[in-house]
UniProtKB/TrEMBL annotation:
This is UPF0319 protein C942_01615. Belongs to the UPF0319 family. Coiled coil: none annotated. The keyword Signal applies. Keywords: Signal. Residues 1-21 form the signal peptide.
Amino acid sequence: MKLRTAILALTACGLSFPSLADINLELPYSAELVLVNGIKKDGNEPLVLKNGENQIAFRYQDGYRENGEYQLFKSDVIIVKFNGEDANYRLEMPKLRNEMETFKFNNNPSIKLTDNNGQTINFEQDKLMKSGIQFGRDYEAEMVAYNLTDNAAAMKSAAITTLPAKVNLDGKQQGENVAETMLNYWYEQADPATQARFKARINQVQ
Protein backbone atom coordinates (compact mmCIF):
# COMPACT_ATOMS: atom_id res chain seq x y z
CA MET A 1 0.00 0.00 0.00
CA LYS A 2 2.81 2.39 0.89
CA LEU A 3 4.59 1.56 -2.39
CA ARG A 4 1.41 2.14 -4.38
CA THR A 5 0.87 5.48 -2.61
CA ALA A 6 4.44 6.55 -3.35
CA ILE A 7 4.12 5.66 -7.05
CA LEU A 8 0.86 7.59 -7.33
CA ALA A 9 2.47 10.61 -5.63
CA LEU A 10 5.46 10.53 -7.99
CA THR A 11 3.18 10.18 -10.99
CA ALA A 12 1.13 13.16 -9.86
CA CYS A 13 4.29 15.21 -9.43
CA GLY A 14 5.49 14.20 -12.87
CA LEU A 15 2.23 15.19 -14.50
CA SER A 16 2.07 18.57 -12.80
CA PHE A 17 5.73 19.51 -13.17
CA PRO A 18 5.65 20.80 -16.80
CA SER A 19 2.87 23.27 -16.05
CA LEU A 20 4.81 24.61 -13.07
CA ALA A 21 8.19 24.94 -14.75
CA ASP A 22 7.38 26.29 -18.20
CA ILE A 23 5.39 28.87 -20.11
CA ASN A 24 2.35 27.47 -21.88
CA LEU A 25 1.20 29.65 -24.77
CA GLU A 26 -2.16 29.11 -26.46
CA LEU A 27 -2.52 30.46 -29.99
CA PRO A 28 -5.69 31.46 -31.85
CA TYR A 29 -6.73 29.45 -34.92
CA SER A 30 -5.80 32.43 -37.12
CA ALA A 31 -2.14 32.43 -36.01
CA GLU A 32 0.15 30.45 -38.32
CA LEU A 33 3.60 30.02 -36.77
CA VAL A 34 6.77 30.81 -38.74
CA LEU A 35 9.51 30.76 -36.07
CA VAL A 36 9.81 30.04 -32.36
CA ASN A 37 12.94 31.49 -30.74
CA GLY A 38 14.59 31.69 -34.15
CA ILE A 39 13.81 28.10 -35.15
CA LYS A 40 11.42 27.23 -37.99
CA LYS A 41 7.98 26.17 -36.77
CA ASP A 42 4.56 25.83 -38.38
CA GLY A 43 1.00 25.19 -37.30
CA ASN A 44 -0.77 26.78 -34.35
CA GLU A 45 -0.70 24.11 -31.67
CA PRO A 46 -0.17 25.30 -28.06
CA LEU A 47 3.50 25.94 -27.27
CA VAL A 48 5.51 24.94 -24.21
CA LEU A 49 8.34 27.47 -23.86
CA LYS A 50 11.23 27.89 -21.47
CA ASN A 51 10.92 30.32 -18.59
CA GLY A 52 12.38 33.73 -19.32
CA GLU A 53 12.52 35.60 -22.62
CA ASN A 54 10.81 34.12 -25.67
CA GLN A 55 10.14 35.23 -29.21
CA ILE A 56 7.61 33.95 -31.70
CA ALA A 57 7.04 34.95 -35.31
CA PHE A 58 3.74 34.20 -37.03
CA ARG A 59 1.21 35.34 -39.59
CA TYR A 60 -2.45 36.14 -39.24
CA GLN A 61 -4.02 33.71 -41.71
CA ASP A 62 -7.76 33.47 -42.14
CA GLY A 63 -10.54 33.92 -44.64
CA TYR A 64 -13.49 36.26 -44.88
CA ARG A 65 -16.45 36.67 -47.21
CA GLU A 66 -16.99 39.96 -48.98
CA ASN A 67 -19.41 40.74 -51.81
CA GLY A 68 -20.38 37.09 -51.93
CA GLU A 69 -16.82 35.87 -52.52
CA TYR A 70 -14.43 34.12 -50.15
CA GLN A 71 -11.10 35.91 -49.67
CA LEU A 72 -7.98 34.54 -47.99
CA PHE A 73 -5.85 36.96 -45.98
CA LYS A 74 -2.27 36.31 -44.99
CA SER A 75 -0.50 39.07 -43.04
CA ASP A 76 3.13 40.09 -42.92
CA VAL A 77 5.23 38.12 -40.45
CA ILE A 78 4.59 39.48 -36.96
CA ILE A 79 7.19 39.22 -34.18
CA VAL A 80 6.24 39.08 -30.51
CA LYS A 81 8.80 39.01 -27.69
CA PHE A 82 7.84 38.58 -24.05
CA ASN A 83 9.09 37.46 -20.65
CA GLY A 84 7.35 34.98 -18.40
CA GLU A 85 7.82 32.35 -15.72
CA ASP A 86 5.65 29.38 -14.73
CA ALA A 87 2.57 30.81 -16.43
CA ASN A 88 -0.18 30.09 -18.94
CA TYR A 89 -0.62 32.75 -21.61
CA ARG A 90 -3.04 33.29 -24.47
CA LEU A 91 -2.34 35.21 -27.68
CA GLU A 92 -5.44 37.06 -28.87
CA MET A 93 -6.18 38.64 -32.23
CA PRO A 94 -9.39 40.14 -33.64
CA LYS A 95 -11.62 38.49 -36.20
CA LEU A 96 -11.14 40.31 -39.51
CA ARG A 97 -14.30 40.50 -41.60
CA ASN A 98 -13.47 42.60 -44.65
CA GLU A 99 -10.63 43.98 -46.77
CA MET A 100 -10.47 47.28 -44.90
CA GLU A 101 -9.99 45.49 -41.56
CA THR A 102 -7.24 43.28 -43.01
CA PHE A 103 -5.50 46.36 -44.44
CA LYS A 104 -5.58 48.15 -41.08
CA PHE A 105 -4.41 45.04 -39.23
CA ASN A 106 -1.49 44.46 -41.59
CA ASN A 107 -0.31 48.04 -41.17
CA ASN A 108 -0.71 48.02 -37.38
CA PRO A 109 -1.40 44.52 -35.98
CA SER A 110 -3.76 44.58 -33.00
CA ILE A 111 -2.57 41.82 -30.65
CA LYS A 112 -3.06 41.02 -26.97
CA LEU A 113 -1.21 38.67 -24.66
CA THR A 114 -3.17 37.68 -21.55
CA ASP A 115 -2.79 35.31 -18.61
CA ASN A 116 -5.31 32.95 -17.01
CA ASN A 117 -6.93 35.84 -15.16
CA GLY A 118 -7.41 37.88 -18.33
CA GLN A 119 -4.71 40.33 -17.28
CA THR A 120 -2.72 41.89 -20.13
CA ILE A 121 0.94 40.83 -20.31
CA ASN A 122 3.54 43.30 -21.57
CA PHE A 123 5.32 42.36 -24.79
CA GLU A 124 7.33 43.87 -27.63
CA GLN A 125 5.97 43.72 -31.17
CA ASP A 126 7.41 44.23 -34.64
CA LYS A 127 7.30 42.79 -38.15
CA LEU A 128 9.89 40.72 -40.05
CA MET A 129 10.06 42.51 -43.38
CA LYS A 130 11.97 41.91 -46.58
CA SER A 131 11.95 44.09 -49.68
CA GLY A 132 11.74 42.65 -53.16
CA ILE A 133 10.73 39.11 -54.09
CA GLN A 134 9.05 37.27 -51.21
CA PHE A 135 9.18 33.76 -52.68
CA GLY A 136 11.62 31.34 -51.05
CA ARG A 137 12.40 33.49 -48.02
CA ASP A 138 14.88 32.16 -45.48
CA TYR A 139 13.08 33.18 -42.30
CA GLU A 140 15.67 31.70 -39.95
CA ALA A 141 18.47 33.74 -41.52
CA GLU A 142 16.28 36.85 -41.64
CA MET A 143 15.48 36.48 -37.95
CA VAL A 144 19.16 36.10 -37.08
CA ALA A 145 19.85 39.40 -38.84
CA TYR A 146 16.87 41.04 -37.14
CA ASN A 147 17.95 39.80 -33.71
CA LEU A 148 21.33 41.48 -34.16
CA THR A 149 19.59 44.87 -34.37
CA ASP A 150 18.38 47.11 -31.57
CA ASN A 151 14.75 46.82 -32.62
CA ALA A 152 12.23 46.42 -29.82
CA ALA A 153 11.36 42.76 -30.47
CA ALA A 154 14.95 41.62 -31.14
CA MET A 155 16.33 38.83 -28.97
CA LYS A 156 20.13 38.76 -29.03
CA SER A 157 20.37 35.36 -27.33
CA ALA A 158 18.44 33.74 -30.20
CA ALA A 159 20.77 35.27 -32.80
CA ILE A 160 23.87 33.92 -31.07
CA THR A 161 22.30 30.48 -30.56
CA THR A 162 20.94 29.92 -34.06
CA LEU A 163 23.52 31.64 -36.27
CA PRO A 164 26.45 29.15 -36.42
CA ALA A 165 24.35 26.12 -37.37
CA LYS A 166 22.39 28.02 -39.97
CA VAL A 167 25.43 29.49 -41.65
CA ASN A 168 27.24 26.15 -41.70
CA LEU A 169 24.22 24.52 -43.32
CA ASP A 170 24.22 27.16 -46.03
CA GLY A 171 27.94 26.80 -46.56
CA LYS A 172 28.65 30.47 -46.00
CA GLN A 173 31.94 31.81 -44.73
CA GLN A 174 32.27 31.98 -40.96
CA GLY A 175 33.60 35.16 -39.38
CA GLU A 176 35.52 35.83 -36.20
CA ASN A 177 32.30 36.92 -34.49
CA VAL A 178 28.55 37.04 -35.03
CA ALA A 179 28.55 40.42 -36.76
CA GLU A 180 31.26 39.42 -39.25
CA THR A 181 29.54 36.15 -40.04
CA MET A 182 26.29 37.96 -40.76
CA LEU A 183 28.06 40.48 -42.99
CA ASN A 184 29.53 37.59 -44.96
CA TYR A 185 26.16 35.90 -45.18
CA TRP A 186 24.19 38.90 -46.37
CA TYR A 187 26.90 39.98 -48.82
CA GLU A 188 26.58 36.59 -50.51
CA GLN A 189 22.78 36.96 -50.58
CA ALA A 190 22.89 40.41 -52.20
CA ASP A 191 22.64 41.19 -55.93
CA PRO A 192 25.72 42.65 -57.69
CA ALA A 193 24.47 46.24 -57.45
CA THR A 194 23.94 45.94 -53.70
CA GLN A 195 27.36 44.31 -53.28
CA ALA A 196 28.94 47.23 -55.17
CA ARG A 197 27.22 49.78 -52.91
CA PHE A 198 28.31 47.78 -49.87
CA LYS A 199 31.97 47.82 -50.96
CA ALA A 200 31.78 51.52 -51.83
CA ARG A 201 30.47 52.30 -48.36
CA ILE A 202 33.28 50.32 -46.74
CA ASN A 203 35.85 52.20 -48.82
CA GLN A 204 34.37 55.52 -47.67
CA VAL A 205 34.71 54.49 -44.02
CA GLN A 206 38.31 53.45 -44.55
